């Protein structure tokens, strides 16, 4: 079971971040323009009170080898002993890579609740063009994950919904990995705690998801909004890492090779990947319809057209399937064998059922 050393969530939580930045006096903060702007004043004020030096660096947009090397060089040159990734998932993943390479503290301040990446001890590496390359695993989880809901509630509603799409797959993937006795993302077997957390994640989505979406639209920090921020980040983060991944994320990885999907967010592709997984594992129609109904209610994509793919060829679907079924892919964590033709056919059926 893996987890960050400390998880903090609440309105204006950034104002107290200094007290959580243990053993650091020189911190690099990376993020996009919006991500940095949302937290910079409160971050600097809190750190200044404790005489912690901070430097803010604009993230170049992709968690790729080139950007990881650029930030690592900056860390070494300016002798930072802590790095903070703020904003979106790719800047966060880059911060985790740099922290691991340079053996420094890692602090995470998401500006959105769009993925379950913040709490995990892994990063997804892409090419500089945005095509999935590999998953990098680390020996420890972040030292701090801080979710300032005053910042997150001002983020686009689409990002919160995307986080729900990512979290929606957690229970179903963890359950399949458990049934097949597969290894989880920590290179161990799933714990009962991990399975319970994954199930709680799914139940929380169904109970509060729609109300949280409306709260986000109104920029209102309600209990329902707080619950979904926690589900998207902490419950899903612990659930997927300690429970395990299966087809939904493998299908997502495959779709990164289709140019038309590059404008879609991670969780949006995972949500459709989950529908494909449910077809692959011959899920009872009642459960499939429950998931489909939720996706439609919160406006997650349920077919290829909604993923941006107006016309798809068999060659494109085979490319998706080949990446999804590559050696070492999480799709092989199912209790049954999955091949490329099965994936292609499952995509076609999920697409029609999601119309």
Automatic annotation (TrEMBL):
GO terms for molecular function: metal ion binding; oxidoreductase activity, acting on CH-OH group of donors. It comes from Trepomonas sp. PC1. Residues 4-149 form the Alcohol dehydrogenase iron-type/glycerol dehydrogenase GldA domain. It comes from the Eukaryota. The keyword Metal-binding applies. The keyword Metal-binding applies. Keywords: Metal-binding, NAD, Oxidoreductase. Belongs to the iron-containing alcohol dehydrogenase family. This is Glycerol dehydrogenase. PANTHER family: GLYCEROL DEHYDROGENASE, GLYCEROL DEHYDROGENASE 1. The lineage of its organism: Eukaryota, Metamonada, Diplomonadida, Hexamitidae, Hexamitinae. Gene3D superfamilies: 3.40.50.1970, Dehydroquinate synthase-like - alpha domain.
């Amino acid at each position: 079971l893996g987890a960050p050393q400390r998880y903090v969530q609440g309105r204006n939580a950034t104002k107290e971040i200094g007290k959580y930045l243990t053993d650091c006096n020189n911190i690099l903060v990376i993020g996009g323009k919006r991500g940095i702007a949302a937290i910079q004043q409160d971050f600097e004020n809190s750190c200044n009170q404790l005489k912690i030096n901070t430097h803010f660096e604009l993230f170049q947009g992709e968690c790729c080898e080139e950007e990881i090397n650029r930030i690592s060089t900056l860390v070494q040159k300016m002798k930072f002993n802590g790095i903070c990734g703020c904003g979106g998932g790719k800047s966060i993943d880059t911060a985790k890579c740099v922290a691991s390479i340079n053996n420094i503290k890692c602090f995470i301040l998401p500006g959105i609740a769009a993925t379950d990446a913040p709490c995990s001890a892994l990063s997804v590496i892409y090419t500089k063009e945005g095509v999935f390359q590999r998953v990098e695993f680390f020996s420890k989880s972040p030292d701090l994950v801080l979710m300032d809901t005053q910042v997150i509630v001002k983020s686009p509603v689409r990002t919160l919904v995307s986080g729900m799409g990512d979290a929606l797959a957690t229970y179903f993937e963890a359950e399949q990995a458990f049934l097949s006795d597969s290894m989880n993302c920590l290179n161990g077997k799933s714990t009962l705690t991990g399975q319970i957390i994954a199930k709680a994640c799914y139940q929380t989505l169904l109970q509060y998801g729609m109300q949280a979406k409306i709260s986000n639209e109104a920029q209102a920090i309600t209990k329902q909004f707080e619950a979904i921020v926690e589900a998207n980040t902490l419950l899903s983060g612990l659930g997927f890492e300690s429970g395990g991944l299966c087809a939904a994320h493998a299908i997502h990885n495959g779709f990164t090779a289709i140019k038309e999907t590059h404008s879609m967010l991670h969780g949006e592709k995972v949500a459709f990947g989950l529908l494909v997984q449910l077809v692959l594992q011959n899920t009872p129609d009642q459960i499939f319809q429950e998931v489909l109904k939720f996706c439609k209610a919160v406006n997650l994509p349920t077919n290829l057209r909604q993923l941006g793919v107006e016309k798809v060829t068999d060659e494109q679907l085979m490319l998706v399937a080949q990446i999804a079924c590559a050696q070492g892919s999480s799709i092989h964590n199912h209790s049954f064998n999955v091949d490329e033709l099965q994936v292609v056919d499952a995509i076609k059926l999920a697409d029609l059922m999601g119309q």
